[in-house]
Amino acid sequence: MSAPKDLLSYASLTKLGKQSHYDEDFDSEFWGTPQKKAEPSQPTSLRQDPYQVSAEPNYADGYDSAEEYCTSFPSKTQPEVNLKNVLGGLVAILTGRNKNNGGTQTPPSSSSNMSFLGSGNDGDSFLHPSVYIPSAPPLLEAEAINYSTYRSVLEAEPPEWLPDSYTTICMQCSAPFSAVTRGRHHCRFCGGIFCRACTKGRSLLPVKFQQRDPQRVCDACYDRLDPLQGLLISSISNATQLAKHDVIDWTCARGWLNLPVGLSMDHEIYKAANTLRSYCQVARLNPEKSIPQAILRGANGLAILTVVKAGALLTYKLGTGLVVARKSDGSWSAPSAILSIGLGWGAQIGGELMDFIIVLHGSNAVKTFSSRMHFSLGAGLSAAAGPVGRVLEADLRAGEKGSGMCYTYSCSKGAFIGVSMEGNFVATRMDANLRFYGDPYLTTTDILMGTVERPKAATPLYVALDELYLKLQQC
């Protein structure tokens, strides 16, 4: 196969090296260049030689090949190729670090792009850091997404769902449907009919679907949507939206009465902000009935819940809320939704609706709320008559990730009085966190330890927290 006419052959380099003039071995047919007019005489050496060869090279030493000619160019000392150096390079590749950090690294030669090995003072070779330092952006960042590759997915239109009568078997595993063990489920992305085992994944869908909650999709669609989840989480999830309910005053029914069960994180954020605002007003009017300032200043986190309690001698409690942790710089983490179910036993009777503020004392208490479920045991005095009452409690909480002491303050509404022993199970609402953040891999530890950025939807909560601690600084 003949060499292309537009390229310089390797053998021609030898010929150039042996001659000092272009004119002696110039072949116009081989180079394929048009004839030009004669130019003024030039020096006999190679014109504009990048290697700065002497104008009168001495070829008397006998360079008989192109390889020998190339070695005559000035270059850095290359490491000796032996078994020791090869093994050293393999160790550097496997361990991902330099074998000799203190050695002098050899800069790459201008005549080669293959200088990935350096040489130390002792003669050993090591892998250049540029080889094993990753240069690609993280997969979850927007700039890592190739739009042309995922264009068909990002611009997909909502499908028309197939009717249930279209098939009697799963369109993926071909298992027949049954009323109890294998029901029908539609994939929200492709509209096909699949069984429960083939639709376990939850994914955010592109913008045209107008869905901010993760939706059930089949396994095939889950694999297609998974590379885009980082982009969709940062753009269309509920956490990235502005708070819809940001007016916290008496003009709204929810402003003076918190419901014990919130159906979404947005509702929990509103309830928590309302509870903090109400507490600030009560603490300003009755400082002796508020949480001691020293305890609030030293808080590592706050859990804010609304709980309904009713019974005689044996009481039942149910409520929901959220928990936020305080970082070392004084800022607050993203919120995590929680559910509380409890029992009380003692000399008590009545019913009340309580807004709890639980002060997490120490990092162990924060780790306790990072558990999927934990148990609390404490004693307290409850008294409520009419719209305003007080409950002061101290309890010990223990979960799979630790235990800690917490102090509880509550403002209650109703008719209740009694002294009791209280036991509660507090669980993280993983479903609420998933609908809010849109990330199925997100854990409570990630949320409370500051890995997740503060969501825009929680702005009313952070405003209320800042007002609470601003008043503490003024005292």
Question: How would you describe what is shown here?
Answer:
This protein has 475 residues and is an alpha+beta fold. It folds into three domains: 50 residues, no CATH class; 95 residues, Zinc/RING finger domain, C3HC4 (zinc finger) (Herpes Virus-1); 222 residues, no CATH class. Helix content is 25%, strand content 25%. It is built from 14 helices and ten strands. The strands form four sheets. A four-stranded antiparallel β-sheet has the order 7-8-10-9. Strands 1-2 form a two-stranded antiparallel sheet. A hairpin with a 5-residue loop joins strand 1 and strand 2. The radius of gyration is 36 Å and the shape is globular. GO terms for molecular function: phosphatidylinositol binding; zinc ion binding. Pfam families: FYVE, Ysc84. Keywords: Metal-binding, Zinc, Zinc-finger. This is SH3 domain-containing protein.
